[in-house]
Amino acid sequence: MRAADLSELAAFDAVARHRSFRRAGEERGVTASAISHAVSNLEARVGIRLLNRTTRSVSLTDAGAMLLAQLSPAFGDIGSALDALNQFRDTPFGKVRINAPSSVAPFVFRSVMAPLITANPNLEVEIVTTDRLVDIVEEGFDAGIRLGESLRDGMTAVKINPRLRFAVVGSPAYLATHPAPKSPEDLQSHVCLRNIYPSGTPYPWEFSRAGKIIEFQPSGPLSLDDHELMVEAALSGIGLAYVWEERARPHIADGRLVECLASWSAPMEWLYIYYPTRRYISAGLRAVIEALRV
């Protein structure tokens, strides 16, 4: 097989997985037009259309789906073979792309980045943060980080540090005119900032005590999908916010925020690094997992 043939097949594989010439180009480190040219050359050489293209979408033809099904294991074997060469290096080599929620990424990576890179100078780690739910396979990530409840089938998950919990916080100015709640039911009489996903879907405040779990869905005047903004809003005295305790802790320590309902604290949440079960695990990804695991 010519090198050009393999390059064209790799370009097709990337487009077929991402359903996007742009994303395929980003993964391959070339322009979208170069990817399109390579796929067109492949289709011309085999004499079969492999992709249906419109201005808005890319989809597989039946022939393209069959080719992808056979290519994926082959490229996995090639990746495993190349990764096996790591045993002849002192440290892992290459790029590892990780997706993580913006709201927790600082707590996950702040204490591990320097030791990880120092110990693995030939490793390139790319961390992309967003709070929207991401399909790590479709978007070309080696692994992702999520709460356990958000994991889908077909993924291998490993518990990582830290274990996080939510806290209800308000400013002293706000609490001076609104008596601090003693139970979750008291929140009905408070101005509560609404937590939403990037899609706009709200998620409830959750509390637990003595095995009892209570969910409260606030109906306040402000909805936010960013925990930093939630903290800023609470600091400004608008109302109570439900945020990661780690993010509010410095402001609680200096007295600018007060934690409420501490005896009804939300359950601790485990975070996981996860990756496709059937995909080979590179030495670089293994190094990242070992740095993060509990």
Descriptive labels:
294 residues, alpha/beta, five-stranded mixed β-sheet, three-stranded antiparallel β-sheet, 10 helices, 23% strand
The parts where pLDDT drops under 50 for at least 5 residues are none
Strand order, largest beta sheet? 4-3-5-14-6
- N→C terminal distance: 45 Å
List how many beta strands DSSP finds.
14
Number of helices: 10
> What is the global morphology?
elongated
**Biggest sheet architecture:** 5 strands, mixed
* Rg, alpha carbons: 24 Å
H/E series, N to C? Answer: HHHEEHEHHEEEEHEEEEHEHEEH
Structural class: alpha/beta
The proportion of strand residues reads 15-25%
- Helix content range of the residues, please? 25-40%
Please tell me the overall pLDDT.
Answer: 88
